[in-house]
Amino acid sequence: MGTGAGGDEKRGEVMAALSRLKPCNLHVTHSWGGGVDRWVRDFCAHDHHAENLVLENIGTPTCYGVGMRLVAGRTGRELGRWLFRQPISETRVRHAEYREVLARVVGDHDVSHIYLSCLVGHSLDIFDLGVPVTKIHHDYYPYCPNIYMFWGEPCSGGCGEQELALCLRDNPVNFANDKSSAAYWLELRGAYVEALARPYVRQVCPSVEVVVQLARLDPALAALAYAVVPHGTSLAKRDSFGGAEEGRRLRVVVLGMQHIVKGLEILKAAFSQARLIVDLSILGGGLHGRVFASRFGVSYLENYRHGDLDGLLAAGGFDLALFASAFAETFCYTLSEVRAHAIPPAARPVGSFLDRVHDGEDGFMMGPTADDLVAFLLRADAQRDRVREVSRRLRALPVRSVGEMVDDYYRLRGDYPELVERRLAAAAGDDGRPGTPEPLQRPQVVLTRGLAR
Questions:
Q1: Which of 33, 124, 132, 434 is deepest in the core (most CB within 10 A)?
Q2: 251-396 — its CATH code?
């Protein structure tokens, strides 16, 4: 039944008022894509409890914080842009221009919570606004200036000024610029750890292994309290398992950019033997992965759009997915994605794979070396019933959605009901805004028990 023009107008006023009543989150991150960017965009797209804004750096490979850009989290529409007279080369303890921009954004949009995903191009002034902060430990920067925390192998921390100076100078996998000295990075490290310990700052890790690694790095980090909230995925569950039938070679997929930290050297060392055992497909291998492009025994796709992954996995008929990562990944989206397709993963024992992969149950754990990778492929070829059994188990496991992840974050926040009540009270007052016909629905949330399954 129609409501008429007057009813439509009134409904529009009420909906606009409801939108204004929602609390506002500010996400602080970088603008360089990758897993962090995906997490932020996913959160904003699936958050029905609050409005979300994103403050991201404007930068170059040699200067990360030339300025800042504010965008609407759900639409990506640019809301503001600022260029600094004094750029931020990497990250700063204090920066007057940055603080001015941040204070303006928080004040103009009545920001009630900050989700800090990345400090690249930003400053620690974020912690000085009196606004509650949730730090999501997607990586170990800026405690370690090398965002991968990798020098030939995953680092375990404990480096002083001399070791840090050598890393900045000699590490071929070095994320940081050379504009700041080791002494400055140590000063920034100390200020960062102090800021994390403040009572209004909450720590969230996407996997248990991140908590373990942070505790190894520094006694001050070990003293903090952490919540583990695994990421969610927007992929629907489907069965794309190839079947691992007898009488043919296993079909094995390697997903994502090939780079030294992603296990490029391990894969290169194992390749000549691996291609004799299985049919290899490398999807999204990028520029460095071109070394495999013209080799016999491999199918190579340099790039793919994330929206095409469902179709690629469904069409490939893969029996296994290999994860040869060399650095300690805090999470791995592609692990979640192949599981959603019931394709058994096989991973090296490093980073979040240590607590996300349970050998013989929801995947396989390989040894750390190239020889171990080859040995695993031989075992899988000879014991195909084990591969089929893991796929069967994966079909029975639920897929953790982005919505579940977002709700878990709100479950951690004790301020949310209070914020809603405060805004509802304001709406019913004399501020000129129409009241709401019914109270806003509280998010019904339960913290995930099966953490990373």
A1: 124
A2: 3.40.50.2000
